[in-house]
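Worked example 2:
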Amino acid sequence: FCYRKAMSIAEMQGNIILKGQVLNNIGLIYCNLGELDRAIDYYTQSLVISEENNNEKGVANTLSNIGALYVDKRGYKAAIPFHMRAVDARERLGDIYGLSVSYTNLGKLYLDFQKNDSARYFTEKSIELKDGLNDKRGLAINFSNLGVVFKREGQLDSAIWATNLAKNIRMELG
């Protein structure tokens, strides 16, 4: 288990930031294995270390992972505050790519809640950033989500436009 070795190295070097990163990655592994209670344990340890050591990037990444974990547990409402806190941290960092991901996550959550105004707001913010980053895959995801919002709002021409744009981007990507 590579992360045990990485943890050992972090502890030998006294590198607390690396220790927080390793804990976050172990949490991610447990989350992917479906062991969500173990994952939250590691995420919590990582978050504490990152916060105590003013590691904004570690805070943002861990908060985003915790938000994703709550989505996996179907705790959608519990996920939102973690994603919002990740947005705050990423804004402080100036992490444009990370912000675009957080906005996509929030847009999708609000879409699932049928909170169309909020879904549209975060989706459009993500599209703006992903366009600047030339993140075609992210654009396709967000235009697809925007198509759903438009459809729900009865804006069928806009829904068709957004959905076709998403389809065309996906076809371009292969």
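The mean pLDDT is 95. The chain has nine helices and no strands.
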